[in-house]
User: Fold this.
Amino acid sequence: MPAAAGAAYYSPAMEAAPPRTRGRRLRRGTVERPLNARLVRVSFVVVAPAVLAFLFSISTTGTLQRSSLEPLFDGESAAALAATLDTEFPSRVPGSEGAADATVWYAQTVGALGLATATDTWTEDIPDLGAVELNNVVTTVPGRSDENIVVVAHRDNAGTDQALGDNASGTGALLELARGFAPQNAGPPPLPQHTLVFVSTDAGAYGGAGAARFAETSPLARSAIAVVVLDGIGGHGRPRIAIAGDAPVSPARVLVRTAARRIEERVGVAPALPSAPLQLVDLGLPYAAGEQGRFLGHGFAAVTLTTASPDHPPVPAGDPDAGLDIERLGQLGRSTEALLSSLDASVGGAFHTPDSLFLGDRAASGWTVRLALVLLVVPFALGVVDLIVRARRRGLPFRPALRALRARICLALLAGLLLWIGALTGVFPTGAPLPLAPYANVLGEPPVVGLLLLAAAFAVVWLVVRQRLVATAQPTAEEWLAGLAVALAVVGAVAIAIALTKPYALVFVLPSLYAWLALPVEGRLWQRVVLFALGLSGPFVAFVLLGHELGVSLPAAALYTLGLATVGYLPLGTVLVVLLWLAAAVQVGALAFGRYCPYAGGAEPPPPGAVRRALRRVVSRA
Assistant:
């Protein structure tokens, strides 16, 4: 073809034309499209079998047979005993003279019935009280079997005006139940099938130390098939059944269902059970204010019968200002007696403690819930792995992002160290690893000065570290994405560790997985802030539910949780995992609010920081 003819096919506009981008599908792993959303969506199919298993596991539970004999429990007699306890010993703080006198009164009263009674005395370090002498009074009614049915009620209180009558109704009911098995003039009553054990515990108002002592050391506890706890059964509120434990377990379904049926038969209304969200929170972060928690934590099937108001749980049902509801006390006393008769007539060994989720009159198997929670981590893990692999191929600057996260992890560990120092100096409570009382000093009289000093110490270190994390220039999209990928990797590692050890605790972490995974690189500020807040919804809801259960505000619930850590009720491993998650959350927050910067501005290698410079000076002078 002649050259002139070929020139007709050339146009300068063709050379200057920009490349077409409209309609072009962006490649995965690029800054514009970092997440393989399709892979994440498709991966959710692995959760379907667990959801189906959960739905098929929901079923009704049978109840134990009701005894043909009518209960003989006398509500007026139990109320008179409760009134005597309140009148003669109004303040029964563990270790006090009033508590010791109340112990003697109870032991003499139950001993006068002609039943075998023994007192277990020991010393316990109780938060806010120190090392005090405690007493459990144990009464046994021999049965034909060596297996035991245990009935528990604590007789102590906090000694404050709003807690003077704490569980006087439970103590009165315990004495009245024992009276029904006392020898009579016409001869001893018929022997029950199982040995009955009535335990009046100490320090029940301070975390259930007496219940823990009995569960850990008593030979009678080792052969117990079930435990029934009475706590404030003479109140005016709706009857409730408490089922939370110190471990992620639940009472046997048949025990819960039988207790509910026996109460409904006598009261006329079904007792309230904790809501499903609250049950998930209790299983995820095992916490139980009631004494049944100590028994469940040691593998005994236990429930607490109570009428305490959920709006004001610290206020006992036996508060003198409110007065005992004698009719309700009689109804729940007879319900308890009928429950004991049903348990006594049961055939077989001890009731087990499988984890379950109670949904009204139905229940779902806990293993299906755990399986679903674990499988919900899989799509996130695949998405993050795909993101990191593709980002590494494109050479994203991971090292500065890792150093920034390392600095935040060090700050989180410093916060944990300051928490430990606060416990040593008395800012936070110490003592036996038991749940704190709702009226603990850390809530009623928060150590403001100590908290401010600890906060100031943290702020000083934070100001030093902050110099390396302050944005001197707007980070590039690549640096932003590297910071997010590193933080998501740590959050994913935390989720996997939780899935392997405490699957129920994933309810607190799962919102952060998918909300933060969806953070856009170049999205609007409000979008990133909303997604970041959604990621915090798991811990936020947990604090709200805990605050509602304790009757305190959200900040007080957070302070209470710190107290649970310093007394050892929350294990050290749990505290470390939480601190690691918080460090990653802070980095995600910096990214969401536009405050993120790679460590030392992304310099490679980074210049020495304040700590290394100080060490070099010390070495050079030496």
Observations:
- Strands lie at 59-60, 116-126, 130-141, 145-154, 194-201, 224-230, 240-242, 302-306, 356-359, 362-365.
- Residues 398-424 form the longest helix (27 residues).
- The chain is about 50% helix and 10% strand.
